[in-house]
Prior knowledge:
The structure is a single chain. The protein is of the alpha+beta class. The chain has 2 domains: about 50-175; about 185-300, no CATH class. It has helices at about 1-25, 80-95, 170-175, 215-230, 240-245, 290-295; strands spanning about 50-55, 60-65, 70, 75-80, 120-125, 130-135, 145-150, 160-165, 185-190, 195-200, 205, 235, 250-260, 265-270, 275-280, 285.
Amino acid sequence: MLKRWNILLSVLLSIQLAVLFYFVNPTGHKQGQVLQKEVLLVVDRDALNKIVLEEAGGVLELNRKGSAWHLGSYFDLPVDEAQLNLFLDAIASWKPGFVYSDSEVDYSRFQVSEQQFRFRVRLHTQNNKEQVFLLGSFEGGDAEDARYYFRQVGEKPVYAVRFSGFLPSTLPFIWMDVNLLQVSDQLQHIGGKGFDFVYRQGVWRLSDLADAEKQDFVQVAGFIAAIQNLRVIGKLDNPEVEKMLSDRQPDYTFDIETVGGKKDIYRFFSVNGKFFVRSDRYPHFFYFSEQTAKLLQGLQRSSFLQK
């Protein structure tokens, strides 16, 4: 009877160990102790002044100038601060977990060696300190819940970290501020071919509106919103197309002026079903959406009057 109980207890213990191993180490990788640090990386955002991301496809550098971040390796264009904060928030949230390996023999397998990695990230601060970490592709996950193997250069442990709703990339348009052509100050004037709008007492009106004329306020509101909220979806990086656009007249233009007297001109072009805009503030052509193009092209003074 005692022998039978010993056999039963041994079977139950084996099942418990198997279940524990599955939930603690479902991937089958080497597993070690839980790290005792509260977070994996401590980043002083106030001192941070440069971020360098590297992958097989290229390198991207983000630099801080004053309080604003710019794409230092891509025409110094402004960075989308919300996107940057997603990245930094993710890093700050990483906490230690089970160590998948602490042996250099496994680094290549996890893609966290100095020679083989999915991403290498360098964080520079104003006091000339640098933190470098490597990310390797992790089985499973998707764009909304991306997981990576992680190792900080100079340390041995390998473990997993997570990006939620964000994927790191060295593609510039992922980081570029799509609102870079918008002006933060209140506009007081918008002019097009044959018409001018002025902003007075909280209302946009045609500057030469006659007493017998009535504005189509839905049409006016749509036009003003399209100019004030102009968003780009990327920068043109084709030299031949850039030269062609530079040598030709725009399809239509709008000039703007803020209450403080700042002026700009938006020049719009279309080529083979693609739409581009250029501003006096940047020597580049930017893509913008077909939806916005439909709101702006072909407008004339009569477009804003009630029929």
